[in-house]
Amino acid sequence: MNSPSVSCVEQSLQRLSQWLASTGYRFITVTPLTHERVLARPHDPASSDLRDAFGWNRPFLKQRLPEDLAVSLVNDGWLQPTQGDGLKSNVRFSSLDGLLFAHSAFPTAEEDAVFFGPDTYRFANFIRNQLLTRPLPESARIADIGCGAGPGGLVAARTQSTTGEMVLADINPRALVHAKTNVAVAGHTHAQCIQSDLFSKVTGTFDLIVSNPPYLLDDTTRTYRHGGGRFGEALSERIVKESLYHLKPTGRLLLYTGSTIAGGHDGLRESVTAYAAGRGFSVHYEELDPDVFGEELEQPAYADADRIAAVGMVVQRRPE
């Protein structure tokens, strides 16, 4: 993608998102492997609709868009011309919880790609279920750490209709461009987007912290995918440890992540539970899906792994 000024990028991306919403556009983003299989099917660009263009990232004819919008998006780098009157999008849009989320085009090969997929939907369901069980205060302060496109914070705020401040933090500047757009189009007026390595630039305490960090080992260390540590668990451990100092007395952390099970042991669970307990916090830990990213087990780094599980954690201070 080209690199125009941030204000120009955000303005044109917001305009596209708003226009798509006005058309009734909806798209559920699938796994990369499913996406590849769909794209392998024969397809004529002349028959591409908006889902093909901005969901599947297939080439399409420029007549699908208002002319002035198409020109603006090409100039700002969100669309690229193809042969003839064709265009191809450098961004995708996914539906979640009645909102549209802009995120990176397929395939997400760039180091700073902004990912959105089935994990995002599981993350959102985890947040909704937890907040319906125990609602937030009306003026709750919410943080989404490693926010990516911002779905965690926006789903939390939408579930509770909170009026408090929301902080979306990510180390990746490209993620914040998408997050700012998604916040603006969602109409959330009490949000700030901060470039920060976890909590390094985040101040104050929160009623709710949500996070869906990368939890795999990635050979190219892509920001959205690489978690570090033995199996990708290092970033999740950091988030738990640092969150304890940013929670209000009745606040909680909702962490959706992955954990590699090796020899029948869940090292992440053992680590974070022991750390939290030693500082007066409890951890409710559950497997939400026992087997995700099974293809990763073919990699040498996972030679000793049994499986990778999607897990949800609720971390909060123990009652005195």
Structure description:
This protein has 320 residues and is α/β, with parallel strands linked by helices. β4 (91-96) and β5 form a beta hairpin. The protein has two domains: 6-104, no CATH class; 118-317, Rossmann fold, CATH 3.40.50.150. The protein contains nine helices and 13 strands. It has helices spanning 6-22, 32-39, 50-54, 67-75, 118-133, 151-160, 173-186, 234-243, 267-277, and strands at residues 60-61, 79-81, 86-89, 91-96, 99-104, 142-145, 166-170, 191-195, 206-211, 247-262, 265-266, 281-289, 307-317.
Q: Mean pLDDT score, rounded?
A: 94
Counting helices, strands and paired strands, the structural category is alpha/beta
Number of E-state strands: 13
Radius of gyration: 20 Å
* Top-tier CATH class of the largest domain: Alpha Beta
- Helix/strand order: HHHEHEEEEHEHEHEEHEEHEE
Examine the secondary-structure arrangement and name the CATH architecture of the largest domain.
Answer: 3-Layer(aba) Sandwich
Concise summary:
By secondary structure, this protein is of the alpha/beta class. The protein has helices at residues 6-22, 32-39, 50-54, 67-75, 118-133, 151-160, 173-186, 234-243, 267-277; strands at 60-61, 79-81, 86-89, 91-96, 99-104, 142-145, 166-170, 191-195, 206-211, 247-262, 265-266, 281-289, 307-317. Helices cover 31% and strands 25% of the residues.
